[in-house]
Structure formats: C-alpha cells, structure tokens
Automatic annotation (TrEMBL):
PANTHER family: 2-ACYLGLYCEROL O-ACYLTRANSFERASE 3, DIACYLGLYCEROL O-ACYLTRANSFERASE. Belongs to the diacylglycerol acyltransferase family. GO terms for molecular function: diacylglycerol O-acyltransferase activity. The keyword Transferase applies. It comes from Eublepharis macularius. It comes from the Eukaryota. Pfam families: DAGAT. Keywords: Acyltransferase, Endoplasmic reticulum, Lipid biosynthesis, Lipid metabolism, Membrane, Transferase, Transmembrane, Transmembrane helix. The gene is MOGAT3. The lineage of its organism: Eukaryota, Metazoa, Chordata, Craniata, Vertebrata. CDD domains: LPLAT_MGAT-like (cd07987). This is Acyltransferase. GO terms for biological process: triglyceride biosynthetic process. It is found in: Endoplasmic reticulum membrane. Its main location: endoplasmic reticulum.
C-alpha cells in the first residue's frame, strides 16, 4: 500500500512538472493545429472567449476552491514532503505582502503552500486568501491561464496587485522577490537570495499599508541539480541577457527519476511575523529604504531561528545579493 502511494505521489509530481514546462506550449500548438481541421470552430470559440476574458487575470483571477483541494495535491505534498510552519498570527483584518524566498527551479514549496490546500494554509491562517504572483506573460498562454487562475495565481503586475490590495482586508499577495534571476543561484547546500535593489514589493506595501511578511522555503534549492556557469562567462551572460529580454532565465537542470522528477527532499515553508507598514500613497525613497532594511533583517532572523530545525548546519549563512 505504501509503495503504491509512493508511486502515485511520484506521478502527481511528474504531471505538475510537465504542466509547468509544456502545458502552455502544448495547448498553443493544439489550437493552431485545430484551425486546419474540421474542428477549427473550437479554436475560434476559445479565442473569442480569450479576448472577452483578457482582463480577468489582472482583476483577481478566477480561483476554484474545488481544484485547490484536489487529493492530487496531497500526493504532491507527500512526495517531498512539504510542511508549512506558522510563527505568528496573520489576522484577516488587514492585507499582507508576503516575500517568498528562494525561487529555486519551480517554487515547489510556494506552489503547495499558497496555490493548494495540501499544507492547510486556510486552516493555519483562517480568513486569509493567498495569491501567488507569476510572470504576467504566462497569463497570455491559452488554457494555461485558466489552470493558473484556478489555483489562485495572478500576474505580478502593478495593476493586478493594486486590484487585490484595494479589494478589502484578508488578502495575502505572495511575491517571489528574487524572480527568475534567483533561479540561476539554485545550488544544493547554498542559501542565496537576491534582495538588493529589489524594492518594488516594499513600495507596493507602503502604498496600500499592507504588512510585509518574510517567507523562507528551506530545502527548495535541494530539489534539482543545476549546471552552473561561472560569473562573467559567455554562457552566464547569455542567460542573464535572455532573462532581461524574456522575463525568465533558461537553466539546465536535472532531477531524480527520468531527470524530470525533483529529488525527494523535505521542504519546510516558514511564514514569518508581519512587519507593520504605514499607508503612504507616495512613499519617499527614504521610507522605502527603511522598510526594505527592516524586511531584510527580519528575513535573516527568520532564517537563523529555523535553520537548525530544518536540517542546516549552525554555520550555514544566508547570502543576500
């Protein structure tokens, strides 16, 4: 029985990885192909719907609680396994901007915690609605956009985040602050985040008076092995250039079975205490810098407080680039 469940868990993670890598491209190609068949009307009808529904991702999306509670996601959680740790209350009487670190290759911890109910986010933080923010361009991919919105994902655009944070208290927008660039630093045993110069999420929190909350996913960088290129090398420069152009960084990585399955390493998502932020519709550079400094200090403190329980050596340091 245990062996069968382990196989099911592996299959659930494999479909998740394949969806992440190929779902959008597959349906784009399929819709184009159908145009040249007797089923051309399927493409025409979907494109008409797509145009009418174009602004939905930036207006809160279209989450589906039934999909977020699929048993499939419990199997996904158990494969690693992934665990959520609460360190403080997040009352639903206000809004929050959660910074998620590190990016890793495909944000397994953040997905399981904030896009499904497998780790019990709604039970742990009752009344709070989480929305994981992704690259805006991904929401232009047919059918894939529906899948992402159903899980509660939204574009990481100013318009999208303003809409959520103006919609009343109880919203927790989750921003993977390091972005695509941080995925290039994904090496087992190394704890590196990119935060210097990344202050847009702090400015957003000030504009809406939303509390800042640091989140760290211990074990995220142990899920894949990435081919690393030296800083300044031609390959590294090409990666960085592509990231600036396309918004994401191409990286060469491998997992365990079949090369696509992540290694089954425990991931512990620790949600820190909120940092109160005043509402400043037009924050000054000094205010942004001040709260950015408070956030970095809180993230470091969160890392130090939980690294031992998450299997890291006492000497392990968090590198902030």
């Amino acid at each position: 029985m245990a062996r069968a469940r382990a196989h099911l868990a592996a299959l659930s993670v494999l479909q998740w990885v394949m969806t992440f890598l190929f779902f959008g491209l597959f349906f784009t190609g399929l819709l184009i192909y159908l145009l040249f068949t007797s089923y051309w009307s399927v493409t025409v009808l979907y494109v008409a719907w797509w145009i009418m529904d174009w602004e939905t991702p930036e207006r809160g999306g279209r989450r589906c609680e039934w999909m977020r509670r699929w048993r499939l996601w419990q199997l996904h959680r158990d494969y690693f396994p992934i665990k959520l740790v609460k360190t403080a209350e997040l009352p639903p009487t206000r809004n929050y901007v959660l910074g998620s670190h590190p990016h890793g290759i495909i944000c397994a911890g953040a997905f399981s915690t904030f896009c499904t109910e497998a780790t019990g986010f709604s039970r742990t933080f009752p009344g709070l609605k989480s929305s994981l923010c992704l690259l805006s361009g991904l929401f232009h991919m047919p059918v894939y956009r529906e899948y992402m919105m159903s899980s509660g994902m939204v574009p990481v655009s100013k318009r999208s985040l303003d809409f959520l944070l103006r919609g009343g208290p109880g919203h927790a927008v989750v921003i993977v602050v390091g972005g695509a660039a941080e995925s290039l630093d994904c090496s087992p045993g190394e704890q590196r985040v990119r935060l210097q110069g990344r202050r847009g999420f702090v400015r957003l929190a000030l504009q809406h008076g939303a509390a800042l909350v640091p989140v760290y996913s211990f074990g995220e960088t142990d899920l894949f092995r990435q081919l690393q290129f030296a800083d300044g090398s031609l390959a590294r420069r090409l990666q960085e250039a592509f990231k600036r152009w396309a918004g994401f960084a191409p990286c060469l990585f491998r997992g365990g079975s079949w090369g696509l399955l992540p290694f089954a390493a425990p991931v512990t998502v620790v949600v820190g205490a909120p940092i109160p932020v005043p509402r400043r519709p037009a924050p000054t550079q000094e205010e942004v810098a001040h709260y950015h400094g408070l956030y970095v200090a809180a993230l470091r403190a969160l890392f130090e407080a939980h690294k031992g329980a998450c299997g890291l050596a006492p000497s392990q340091q968090l590198l902030v680039a």
